[in-house]
Amino acid sequence: MKNINTIKINFKGGIISPNELYNILISVSKSRLLFVRFGLRQQLLIDVNIEQINSITAELNMLGITYEINKEEYPNIVSSYPAEEIFIIDTWLTGDIYKRIFEMIDYTPRLKINISDSNQSFTPLLTGNINWVASPSDKDYWHLFIRFPKTNIIYEWKDVVFTNSIAVMSKLIEEIILTQSAKFYDDNEASGDELYELVKQGNFATKPAEASLTLPPYKLPYYEGVNRYSDKYWLGIYRRDELFSIKFLKEACLLCLKTGIEQIFSTPWKTIIIKSIEEKNRKDWNYLLDKYQINIRHAANELNFQVDDNSQEALKLKHHLVKYLNDDDTRTFGVCIGIKVKRKSEVFSSILVRRKPLIRIGKGGLFYVYDILCAKDFNPNERTAFAFSKDNPKFLLAEQLRRAVLSFYKYHGKTDAVKAVVVNEVQSPDIEP
User: DSSP H helical segments within 349-416, as ranges?
Assistant: First the structure.
């Protein structure tokens, strides 16, 4: 088996310059690569053989591109900017404000940062360690939620923070957590109040929060296809195998540059979104989709899934489950289904399928079974979960998942049925930093 390595390139908030992406694709295609992928944290992922690494990294170095190989020491900043204008309306948080924040973050974070509008559920709010959520009513102020690394402990900050303080405050929080790791890193007794007192000593523009922030109900919009908004169109592209043709992406970049589109967006659904397509250019995008046979009308029960990055096992399991739900004609609208096969990973989900070995050998294992966990209130932004079904062999898993989906609808139909299938309350131990 070939030794496959993954090169990761971060784009802050999922914003990609077509010109920069085009140059990256030209460089990697010199090594005869055919495909690239996008990850859960809106980053570009390039899978290469060991023999190709030196030539590809040399090209990236010439372009001045920052990258990591098989590491996640510097996680990408996740943002809800891709949803702005198309899924998020009537909000004070504009594209210019997102960009201003990204410019002020002039260091490379080692903890995960999420920057999100509160008026959306397209992108996850609390999968970061430092989670900024825009106040729904107080312009230019943000609620802050800390998820201590390698724990499920969520601490809501007592103050709301002014936009211009986000970058410097994030940097200080990271420094304190990492330098005092015995207190705040991989510790289920980590004290948010203690961290708050340490950070409070800094000079930041804040004011006391009037109330806790109510997390929005989860509603996943249909995020692919050619769709009209205002007087323009946006295009969302999903790939079943997560692979984007380099030839297609190069032509898409050139078409963006030709038609004055300055940004391509990667999303936490491992997809891309292209906005600001004018009516006169729509035929050019349709032609490009036709040329590369890009299907843009997948079933909702396929789009609802989130799976681990860099995992063929998770992807194969997704296809197995989707087929069963399809054959049964199961409704999955509004459900976010996650698949987690890695011990330490972060998957955004209402219902989580988690693989575990009956026998663990080092980092691997033998004889896998599956748990089905449901988020509190089936809201993916909640951190606690209950076990719907545990220790399922694979041949029973799809039916158990179908039943969990039915419980989702019963719960939201305001019945007590979901309580009857609760096995026990759990706090998921498998958390990525």
Answer: 394-412
Using CA atoms, how far apart are residues 428 and 152, in angstroms rounded to an integer? 7
For residue 317, which of 352, 343, 351, 341 has the smallest C-alpha distance? 341
Across 394-421, b (16+ Cβ under 10 Å) vs e yields eeebbebbbebbebbbbbeeeeeebeeb
Q: How many residues does the chain have?
A: 433
What is the bridge-based pairing of β-strands 337-340 and 305-307?
Answer: parallel
- List C-alpha distances in Å: 271 to 14, 62, 240, 242: 10, 27, 10, 8
Overall average pLDDT of the 288-307 stretch: 93
Q: What is the DSSP letter of 214?
A: P
DSSP at 287: H
Question: Which domains, ranges and CATH numbers included, belong to the chain?
Answer: 4-75+221-291 (3.90.480.10), 88-208 (no CATH), 303-426 (3.30.413)
Specify the pLDDT at position 2. 56
Q: Is the pLDDT of residue 418 over 50?
A: no
pLDDT of residue 334: 86
The identity of residue 382, as a single letter, is: E
What is the C-alpha to C-alpha distance for residues 232 and 407, in angstroms, rounded to an integer?
Answer: 39
Question: In the structure, what pLDDT confidence band is assigned to residue 419 with cuts at 50, 70 and 90?
Answer: very low
